[in-house]
Amino acid sequence: MNLISQPLDFEIEYPEADGEPMSESDQTRDYLIYGIKALRHYFRNRADVYVSGNLFIDC
Asked: Residue 34's Cα: distance from chain center in Å?
């Protein structure tokens, strides 16, 4: 594993403070659906596990 030993010369800015939801691509949606299906299959015999995805909760 390589670690960066010096700080970056610039700050990385992630667009999250404009109040608008982040867009998703078709590929992102497909990965989410695959992950949900895989986890539901993995936990299919567990009544104490709930699997879902992309639930937006605004507090």
From this structure: 13
